[in-house]
Design a protein that fits this description.
CATH architecture: Sandwich
Largest sheet: 8 strands, antiparallel
Structural class: mainly beta
Shape: globular
Order of helices and strands: HHEEEEEEEEEEEEEE
Number of domains: 1
CATH topology: Jelly Rolls
CATH superfamily: Exo-inulinase, domain 1
Strand content: 35-45%
CATH class: Mainly Beta
């Protein structure tokens, strides 16, 4: 009887909701204020005791083609949700990349959600914060002024991409249509080093596969 009870308890643990739902849980990508546990880069990214990730380009670092200097997540994803805060300086520029098949060529081998100092910008383009590059502007300009924290929530399930900025849905895109139809369907996730100061915090990811 004792052996049977132990076997039954073990079976119940294996079938428990915690075990069944573990793959759908949010993962802290900056655990204990560690940057190198989940990320890799040759760029000058650092994290402080408050969990704020800061990009401070070194002398001579400029432009956006130094792809190994991007902040790259070690793991890959297809269907996912991600949420994070970002802060730009005046005229700041970065981007959230996903479905990157080749980290040496993310611009043509991935998809970018634009991050930009676009507060107050009248004309909406794919370079307004929340725009999807290439060629898909957001439906609204929800970015806060430079120097303030902004909050992104980005969800990608199969070909359906939803981008929410500061609580407002600013983009809904069918990735099977238009200029994104030929882009990879899964791959790496990363943040752009555009050679400009930039900050991140509270990065969390949930895989939905």
């Amino acid at each position: 009887m004792r052996i049977c009870m132990l076997f039954l308890c073990g079976a119940l643990l294996l079938c428990s909701p915690v075990q069944a739902e573990s793959k759908d849980q949010w993962v802290d990508l900056l655990p204990n204020n560690q940057l190198d546990k989940h990320w890799t880069t040759t760029g000058n990214w650092s994290i402080n005791d408050e969990g704020v990730v800061t990009l401070e380009p070194r002398p001579g670092e400029s432009g956006w083609k130094r792809y190994d200097a991007y902040l790259w997540l070690n793991d890959q994803a297809r269907n996912f949700e991600v949420k994070f805060d970002y802060k730009t300086q005046p005229k700041g520029n970065s981007g959230f990349y996903f479905h990157v098949a080749d980290r040496d060529d993310p611009v043509s081998q991935g998809i970018e959600v634009q991050i930009y100092d676009s507060h107050g910008q009248d004309k909406l383009t794919d370079h307004t914060s929340g725009g999807v590059i290439p060629r898909i502007p957001p439906s609204a300009n929800a970015a806060k002024p430079a120097g303030e924290w902004n909050h992104f929530e980005i969800r990608c399930v199969d070909d359906q991409l939803t981008v929410k900025l500061n609580g407002k849905v600013v983009n809904k895109v069918d990735l099977s249509e238009g200029p994104l139809a030929t882009r990879p369907k899964s791959g790496y996730i990363g943040f752009q080093d555009h050679g400009l100061p930039f900050q991140l915090r509270d990065i969390h990811l949930k895989k939905l596969d």
